[in-house]
Amino acid sequence: MDFKRKRRPWRLLRLIQALIVLGLILGATALWVARPVPLPDDHFAGLTGDAARGETVFWASGCASCHAEEGAEGDARLILTGGRQFVSDFGTFVAPNISSDPVYGIGGWTVQDLGNAVLRGVAPDGRHYYPAFPYASYARMTPQDLVDLHAFMATLPASNRPNEGHDLAMPFAFRPGIGLWKRFVAHDEGWVVTDALSPQEKRGRYLAEGLAHCGECHTPRTALGGLDRSRWFAGAPNPSGEGRIPNISPALLRWSEEDLVAYFTYGLTPDFDSAGGSMTDVIHNLARLPESDRAAIAAYLQKVRPVQ
């Protein structure tokens, strides 16, 4: 009996050792699954950027809405100095300087660097970007559009404003966890609207679901923070905590295509109300697109499934 009692501590020690080894294996596996996955090295091979086309990509993607100084107008919206704060349930995100400055901005980035950031949410140093940067939607951007965007952004003014860090609480400040979120929650599931579409409607889908990332605000999220694709464009709480982002599915938004194009151009609704809040920035962007693109988005919105 005395001998058996002496063996019990050793059994307990072996159990603890086994649990530690198992924990290390699981942790290493999680880190491997959560690792940043950059684009293939030849993703942009053979492509040449066109700054004029890149300007359309720039405005469609809403870069100035987050990265220009708040309240900037006219050409000042092209100075992507960063610094704007975005308050959320996870903490406060601060937009970085993405001007052409090679030290404080992204002037030293290659096309591959920009592609990894915009399409994969991976920084040049290999860190995950937080999904306040809507790369899950931008992932639909074509390689040519990304190369054109890089060419246009290289023509923009430089700003030497230093970047500020985000103010996030744990566990949200733990960047490797973003890799797991990318892998299991925000992975690419293809287009939301998969009905047969005309070329105009396909262009509208590309703009609305991809570049303009409309679903990031207008679609409610799941418990894990992914977009609830079953309620596409059904409206969602405003991330700032003030009110709600409206339902823009045909269940509630019954404007004609002409009404929508006018709204995207001038910010005026059919009953002569005007756009407010963050939508004013969106209108600034859409108004700079060719009218054919605004009409394409309007045509696409008619194809979205109505959701109450």
From TrEMBL:
Domain Cytochrome c residue range list: 49-157, 199-305
InterPro entries reported for this sequence: Cyt_c-like_dom (IPR009056), Cyt_c-like_dom_sf (IPR036909), Cytochrome_c-type_DH (IPR051459)
Domain of life: Bacteria
Keyword Isomerase: no
UniProt keyword list: Heme, Iron, Membrane, Metal-binding, Transmembrane, Transmembrane helix
Parts of the chain that traverse the membrane: 12-34
Matches recorded under PANTHER family: ALCOHOL DEHYDROGENASE CYTOCHROME C SUBUNIT, BLL4482 PROTEIN-RELATED
The protein's name: C-type cytochrome
Higher taxonomy: Bacteria, Pseudomonadati, Pseudomonadota, Alphaproteobacteria, Rhodobacterales
